Amino acid sequence: MRLLLICLGGACGTAARYGVDVAAARWLGVDFPYGTMIVNVVGSFLIGVVQEAALSTPLVPETLRLVLAVGVLGGFTTYSAFSYGTIRLAERGTAAAAVNVLLTTGLCLGACALGLLLTRALVAPR
């Protein structure tokens, strides 16, 4: 049953990623992989929240943690699309490839740390 729930969560995360990608392309254009960056940054923040809440408090049961972190956020975030988008930018010979790597890495690490800190501040035992 746990595996089925994780798979269903993955399907939801994948659908959400597709929606963000389509919206980002429509609103921001297709010259830069904005959608991939957005889902990776948002997903990094959310995984920080989920993992911290689950591992340091009784608020998130283990099965829900797995459904959210492995399923939903695993389907939502995408390192493979990040890699592909970066290589495509590099093939065009633009500095945008380096910008994508630096921005995505920095923003994702910062978002995850922010998620951890915010969750600790909100739900940590005092």
Structure description:
By secondary structure, this protein is mainly α. The protein has one domain (2-123). 84% of the residues lie in helices and 0% in strands. Helix 1 packs antiparallel against helix 2 and helix 2 (34-56) runs antiparallel to helix 3 (62-76). The chain is globular and about 50 Å long. The model has no long low-confidence stretch (mean pLDDT 92).
Any idea how many domains?
Answer: 1
Radius of gyration: 16 Å
String of helices and strands: HHHHH
Percent helix range: over 70%
Shape: globular
How many H/I helical runs?
5
Strand-pairing-aware structural class: mainly alpha
List low-pLDDT spans. Answer: none
Number of strands: 0
- Which percent band covers the strand fraction? under 5%
The end-to-end distance, rounded to whole angstroms, is 35 Å
For the residues shown, what is the average pLDDT?
92
Largest sheet, if any?
Answer: none
Layout of helices and strands:
Blueprint: H1 2-28, H2 34-56, H3 62-76, H4 79-91, H5 96-123
Question: What are the defining features of this structure?
Answer:
mainly alpha; single chain; 5 helices; 126 residues
Give me a quick take on this structure.
By secondary structure, the protein is mainly α.
